[in-house]
Amino acid sequence: MTSSLTALALTCTLKPSPEPSSSDKIARQVLDELASHGVEGDLVRVVDFDVRPGVQTDMGGGDQWPRIRERILAADILLLSTPTWVGHPSSVAQRVMERLDAELSETDDQGRPSMYGKVAVVAVVGNEDGAHKIIADCFQALNDIGFTIPASGGTYWNSEAMVPKDYVELEQTPDAVATTNKKLASNAVHLARLLKQAQYPPVE
């Protein structure tokens, strides 16, 4: 019998709810694929919260990051979904990674950083190129923080060069994206189950 898993998608669009969001769309598609493996998932649109700049778990003064942090701590799989802006992740995604940096100082009773044993995957959408670089940058940051990255842990869609179009406008999901979403979900679940059964060794 395998342990149940949960996933949390943090979408880093610059558009507040209820505006349509390409980052939300691809994140929900990945959550649907995770659900096909029995993973219960939820989505948070970060821009809807007052997430203060800083590198502490709680910056005070009405900072709402602690509410999001609690949900990250409760999840086995984190999906970071971001649009592409001038070839980079959104400022919201950057802030999320900056706030997660505080987790390096948060450890369990065996000295492991708080995100050890959790899996992280990344989704990128954009009407310009840059997805590979964004995924690489996010992977490096998330791995530094303590998350584990599965094989084929990134999915993305970019519009045709010089022909701006948003992912949310597509009537059908391209086969390559759908296939990548499936592979990402399958590998993320496989890795999360392994880590649930055998956590990393204590930090000495």
Q: Can you describe this structure?
A:
The chain has one domain (6-197): 3-Layer(aba) Sandwich (Rossmann fold). Helix content is 35%, strand content 18%. It is built from five helices and six strands, in the order βαβαββαβαβα. The chain has helices at residues 22-35, 65-74, 91-100, 131-145, 175-197, and strands at 6-11, 40-45, 77-85, 88-89, 119-126, 154-158. Strands 1, 2, 3, 4, 5 and 6 form a six-stranded mixed β-sheet that branches.
Question: What is the element layout, followed by pairings?
Answer:
Blueprint: E1 6-11, H1 22-35, E2 40-45, H2 65-74, E3 77-85, E4 88-89, H3 91-100, E5 119-126, H4 131-145, E6 154-158, H5 175-197
Parallel strand pairs: 1-2, 1-3, 3-5, 5-6
Antiparallel strand pairs: 3-4
Helix pairs in contact: 1-5
Number of helices: 5
If you compute it from the alpha carbons, what radius of gyration comes out, rounded to the nearest whole angstrom? Answer: 16 Å
Report the structural category: alpha/beta
Could you describe the largest sheet, including whether it forms a barrel? Answer: 6 strands, mixed
The number of domains: 1
Query: SSE string, helix = H, strand = E?
Result: EHEHEEHEHEH
CATH architecture group name: 3-Layer(aba) Sandwich
The overall strand count is 6
The CATH class: Alpha Beta
Euclidean distance between termini CA atoms: 32 Å
Low-pLDDT windows of residues: none
Work out the helicity level: 25-40%
CATH superfamily (homologous) name: Flavodoxin domain
Q: What would the principal axes of the Cα set say about the shape?
A: globular
Mean pLDDT: 95
Enter the CATH topology name: Rossmann fold
Binned strand content = 15-25%
